[in-house]
Amino acid sequence: MIIDTHMHIYDSSYDDIREEVIQNALDNDVKIMIAIGCDYSTSLKALELANKYPFIYCAIGLHPYEVLKEKDKDLKWIYELAKNKKVVAIGEIGLDYYWDKSYINEQKEMFVKQIDIARKLNLPIIVHSRDAISDTYNIIESNSDVKGVIHCFPGSLEMANRFIKLGYYLGIGGVLTFKNSKDIKNVVKNIDLKYLLSETDSPYLTPHPYRGKLNKPEYIKYVCYEIATIKEKGLDYVTDILSNNAIELFKLGGRE
Ligand code: NI
User: Fold this and answer.
1) What spacing in Å lies between the alpha carbon of 190 and ligand 1's midpoint?
2) What is the DSSP-derived secondary structure letter of residue 84?
3) Consecutive 10-residue runs of the chain (256 residues): their mean pLDDT?
4) What are the boundaries of each domain within the chain?
5) What is the dihedral of CA 9, 15, 18, 20, to 10 degrees?
6) 161 CA to centre of ligand 1 in angstroms
7) Which of 98, 201, 216, 217 is the most buried (most CB within 10 A)?
8) How far is the CA of 232 from the centre of ligand 1 (A)?
9) Which numeric CATH code is attached to 2-250?
10) 2: CA distance to ligand 1 center in Å?
11) What does 197-233 look like in DSSP terms, one character per residue?
């Protein structure tokens, strides 16, 4: 079994093919998927998918891109949606300084606020971090009672070690299969499998050999092959460990 711990297949690019994409994922051994929201409306769509399919779970949260657009600064909708048992995390949340550095303080404020919500709801967080790894680390370190995953881990081996010391998992996706992605290959080589999660981030970050095309959960196998190759282990050995990691972090057996 493989678990896609991070996908957005509620996206309109799947409107005509969603059923087929879900069936193909199941046929390719992707038995559990987690749909990730980025604001109220996408969190609702993620939850709708989770309510429709027993093997889909969801995360709800406000992505750093959406911070300025958010009207409800208390994020009451997160508490509302999180009552549903299929919600397994708060995400994706975090910091992104790549596109726009003009509202860093607002990003940090919403990130911390959502970590507080996760703490109250006893849920893990799914963290997006781009060109902001030190600030991300500092915020997480000061809130280290809350656990989670750094999705599409963007840092060095040294940073990877610091995050796993805080009890964090590292999300590994399609970037690992790109030729010039030395940092993440080095991270996978040197970090124990017990700290890694498999993910696609569909529709983004499509792995080789489909790079440039629409990503789909079934393509997660290319990520897992690459991890197995780097680790010099069998595919099933790798996917068993990674699936157990996801089950443990997101309590996929069910929330108390
Ligand atoms: Ni994402």
Assistant:
1) 25
2) S
3) 98 98 98 98 98 98 96 95 96 95 96 98 97 98 98 96 98 96 97 98 97 97 98 98 98 72
4) 2-250
5) -150
6) 23
7) 217
8) 28
9) 3.20.20.140
10) 18
11) EE---BTSSPPTTSTTS---GGGHHHHHHHHHHHHT-
